[in-house]
Amino acid sequence: MVTIVDFVKRQDKDGKEFRSLILNGGIEMVRSKTSGRYYATTRKCSITSTFNEVMCKSFLGTVLEGKIVKVPCEPYEYALPSTGELINLDFRWEYMPEEVAVKAKPMEEVIFEPSLVREI
């Protein structure tokens, strides 16, 4: 389950405005690689919409079936909001409706699928 928590106004490449909904997943406990201690976090992503500002506001707090999943992508640089440090990432977070998520393979199965593994 994910919740619509916010929305943002964006522009496409032609300068046309649209709104993206900001989604948060449920709370997750993650172990720090540096300290070994657990901390609470949530997955977050955005999805484009055809809604105007009034409609976006009316959807805040709406819970949707599905989850936010980690999807591999081309590497890119990301600036950490807290420090400004640039890091390289090769994934993005994406919303997946429940009916699709149930049929999807776990990411590890996809990554290590024999047809995708090649010897160098």
Explained architecture:
With 120 residues, the protein is an alpha+beta fold. Helix content is 15%, strand content 52%. The protein has 3 helices and 6 strands; from the N terminus they run E-E-E-H-E-E-E-H-H. It has helices at 53-59, 98-103, 107-111; strands spanning 2-11, 17-31, 38-49, 63-64, 67-79, 86-96. It has a 4-stranded antiparallel β-sheet with strand order 3-2-1-4. Strands 5-6 form a two-stranded antiparallel sheet. The longest helix has 7 residues, at 53-59. It starts with a strand and ends in a 9-residue tail after the last helix. Mean pLDDT is 86; it is low at 110-120.
Briefly characterize the structure.
Helices cover 15% and strands 52% of the residues.
Strand line-up of the largest beta sheet: 3-2-1-4
Provide mean pLDDT, rounded: 86
Distance between the termini: 40 Å
- Structural class comes to alpha+beta
- Total number of helical segments? 3
Can you write the helix and strand succession as a string?
EEEHEEEHH
Oligomeric category:
single chain
Biggest sheet: strands, sense, closure? 4 strands, antiparallel
Using only C-alpha atoms, the radius of gyration works out to 17 Å
Q: How much of the sequence is in beta strands?
A: over 45%
Strands, count: 6
Which spans have pLDDT < 50 for at least 5 consecutive residues?
A: 110-120
Give the overall silhouette.
globular
Helix content: 10-25%
Features:
single chain, 120 residues, alpha+beta, 4-stranded antiparallel sheet, two-stranded antiparallel ribbon, 3 helices, 15% helix, globular, disordered C terminus
